[in-house]
Amino acid sequence: MIRGLNLIPLPFLGSGKQVFFIAMKSTDHLPILAFDVDGTLMDHRDTIHQKDIELLTMPDPPAIFVPATGRSLLAIRRILRSFGICDERPLRFPMVLQNGALIYDPGEVKLRRISFDLPLQAELIGLFKTKPDVSFLISVEDHTYMVNPRPFGLNETRKYMSEPDVYSDNTPLDACTKILCLCEDPEKILEVREMVKDFNLEVVHSRTTMLELNATGVNKGEGLEFLAKHHGWNKNQVYCAGDGDNDLAMFGRFPNSFTPHTSPANIQTAAKFVIDTRQDGLLTPILKAVS
Length: 291
Fold this sequence. Notes:
The protein is an alpha/beta fold. The chain has 2 domains: 17-114 and 218-290, Rossmann fold; 118-215, Hypothetical Protein, Haloacid Dehalogenase-like Hydrolase, Chain: A, domain 2 (2-Layer Sandwich), CATH 3.30.1240.10. 30% of the residues lie in helices and 22% in strands. The chain has helices at 17-24, 50-56, 73-82, 118-128, 151-159, 186-195, 220-231, 248-253, 265-270, 283-290, and strands spanning 32-35, 64-67, 95-97, 102-105, 109-113, 135-140, 143-147, 165-166, 178-182, 201-207, 210-215, 238-241, 256-260, 273-275. It has a 6-stranded mixed β-sheet. The longest helix has 12 residues, at 220-231.
């Protein structure tokens, strides 16, 4: 048995248990590459470089690949399937999803879920109704609800491969794992940030038109750290890549950080390495730097 890893008999783009075992052997010596998806693995044209696809589909990969994203499991599965990286079977990657609210082991084995406190969630929803120009996407793992559905919010949500139910006061709502605030007017997003500043929340800007809310203490860096402790990974063995404010928590907790050349200036300043992804994609340059 490999330390900290469960060998799950799930075939992946191959024939049976042997392929999965080969992919997981000797992982104590493999680098761990944790990467954001939007704007990092997937460029601003919403494409994934062919070299990255080849690496992510290798039966015996040269690294442990860890998607670390604000997206849900359902959305990640749909994206990877659209590029031929997976099929209908459970994903073979460890994953940090919804900014760390959900942590998965290979085979989509859920290790952890951190949700909002229900009274806090109800108070926030009451405040959201006072901002009718802003759409609020409430995620309960893979199920989504929208407060104040507006064209911009709905269109952005569909880009993230989600079709939300419209929230009403009669909606039976479990504790949510993430809230996404969406508006084409950046000033209104700033107003929302000001509105929630006194709440005990994790708040990050994805873009000027998008604000992400998680329960206190939940972020990608903490989530990746949880996964590293679970598997016994040395922090120097972990290499993280991202292009947004929600990736800075990973950069702050792990010494080896990368960002694409297309990322904003503040992210390039925070990262240890800036890489040009045009020729070889994201993962190959990181592996070269590691070696």
